[in-house]
Amino acid sequence: MKVQDMAQNLYSDTRGQSERPVTFTEAVIDGLAAGGGLYVPERIPELSLDEIGALAELPYAQRAARIYRAFDVDLPAETVEALMAQAYGDNFDDERICPITSLSADTHVLELWHGPTSAFKDMALQCLPRFFSASAAQLREQGKLDHDFLILVATSGDTGKAALEGFRDVDGVSIGVMYPDGGVSDIQFKQMATQRGRNVQVWGVRGNFDDCQTGAKNVFGDEAFAKKLQDEHRIALSSANSINWGRLMPQIVYYVSAYAQLAADGKLNLGDELDVCVPTGNFGNILAAYYAKRMGVPLGMLYCASNENRVLTDFINTGTYDISERPFVLTPSPSMDILVSSNLERQLFELTGRDAAAIAGWMADLRGQRRFRVDEETFARVRELFASDSIDNATCLDTIKRVFEQHGYLLDPHTAVAYQTAENLRGENPVLIASTAHWAKFGDNVYRALHGIEPGAPLPDDVAALSGCKLNELIARETGVDDIPHGLAELDALPIRFDEVIDGGTNDIEAAALRFLEHLDD
Ligand SMILES: *Cc1c(COP(=O)(O)O)cnc(C)c1O
User: Fold this and answer.
1) Model confidence over 200-225: pLDDT tens digits?
2) Residue ranges of the Threonine synthase N-terminal domain (predicted)?
3) 309: CB partners within 8 A, 6+ apart
4) Are residues 355 and 409 in the same domain?
5) Whose CA is nearest to atom 2 of ligand 1?
6) Residues lining ligand 1, CB < 6 A?
7) Collapsing DSSP states into helix, strand and coil, what is residue 187?
8) Domain of 455?
9) What's the number of domains the chain is made of?
10) Would residue 474 count as lying in a domain?
């Protein structure tokens, strides 16, 4: 079948500002719609129970290809199959890609961290870059694009590594990542500083994560710099951040796949309801569960788990999203430390029956007054679908200890927040807990948990002196849980490739980016 013969599923934006709906490939390349809205597909495909159940007979990559085909992406079927085979192959340390560990007959942990960086971001970032590159190639062929891309990412630690690993050696794209110098863990620093690949660059930035992010934003807003990149290097800047539809879609796959797998394994009957509990930050992961439900997967309640940054819990419980006087709290689950949860916008778009005017109004309220309140009908829809709880730092660490003592299974702090939320909220249905990081990415807090040390309190001197790798080895010896992923275990032995530290001013970042591009051109 030729691309142009396919029934096209186009993408419109949540604020109704785009001139025309765009194709999947355009949505992936654009990321954000004009006017600041987020792209959503006009049609959500539905699968029958039999079609869902049948997915379990396929390897994961083919399950993913099926779902992309159901969404009618405007790429040839062979291309989709080939990209999925690369995205979900032996770059994962388990051939099931995201295996499920059942802690009891009705508590199932979906392990989303078997990818190359041991974080759930790999599920999306092993996939998106390949589709980004293929989309750019197709648009180039159609004469709609005449340049390559520089992906610029500001990271507080985990996303940067997953993005580097996803974009490394991908055609037509290079990637530069900025992290706060001294503000990431030893493991996170080494994961980034030892990154392999010909098209990658990493900088420490003097300052904190906010400085990195502001620096990146300023560079994205500098039109003169954009023109220089285009004229001299035929390159455009892109961010590939978590609002890109191409990052969301791979996440829908694992919920459909997990349901099919549980049914195939006899852990539930096809058609039984399964509740889902997701440790939530930007609302991408839990939104993917919502879309899986819309596709026909019999998911029940969606439990939104927050840490002490409980803006989403308060929103789901009150209908008001309010950051006007909300402090930003540091927690043992930093990837959920967030105030503005950007994918909530897509969720509200769906729950209002796709009312772009309402969304544009609420987002303007959020910018202007730092709060918005949804109408009663929308709030009622939120309450039907979601329940939420927030877990404090001490309870998070207690949960790691308790689950280890009960089940001999180590949770990372993000997953622990979800586990405890599920315990607090669950009803009759079995629960699927989204596990978003391997424990060894957060060894310091796992050590605190197991030794009853309070959150934020210093580790004993001899433990604090250990490298991240050595600390993980100590935990593995003490617990007997000896499953440290190769990519984390080998870090002390790898050469440091990137140790440059730059200032976070717009000019400093732009100069560093140009040096990187010139070096690439050589
Ligand atoms: C990014 C991240 C989350 C939050 O996921 P969202 O899709 O932003 O809600 C949770 N846990 C870990 C470990 C993450 O890296």
Assistant:
1) 999 999 988 888 888 998 998 899 99
2) 11-88
3) 326, 328, 329, 331, 336, 337, 338, 339
4) yes
5) 335
6) 119-121, 158, 242, 279-285, 335-336, 414, 436-437
7) helix
8) 440-491
9) 2
10) yes
